[in-house]
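Onboarding guide, step 5: your first structure request.
Type a short instruction followed by the sequence, for example:

Predict the 3D structure of this protein.
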Amino acid sequence: MNIIKKLSLLSLIASMFFLVSCDDDSSDPATSGTLNISINLTNPDSWPADGTVFCSLDKTWPPSGAPYKSVVLQSAQVNNGTISLVFEDLDFDTYALLSVSWLDPNNPNPACNQAVWGTHSGSIQAFYADAVPFTFSAENSELSLVVGAVANTVTPDCPPTG
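The system replies with structure tokens like these:
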């Protein structure tokens, strides 16, 4: 009987040691960024029947190619005038612009085929070059941004062809 008690006690101590050593350490540093996005749509009933609406994240502005990250938005995502979404696994880096835009399906010219609905900052007068950049890092791995957006299908004038 004495041996059974000793073995039971030894098993209990070994089990406790194992459980304590497997404790999840939640202080691991972040390895990527997360962006929580709220898009406040002023006129959700004006969602266009044709074309595609995007929410895009660009590292440079004006853009020099495809956005770093982009998702297609649907009118069904609008809840009380707001669309909420999350961009995860973002590089630790600086980003120039978060935008919402509509792509005109009848205009193939990338210089003038999108109507900007809204951005996280900046002004149309400066073509959003005055937008405030934001950065993800190990110390700053999660951000929340709000985009005020107005649904519209007015695209900029196309440059003259020569």
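Each response can be followed by summary notes, for example: The chain has one domain: 33-149.
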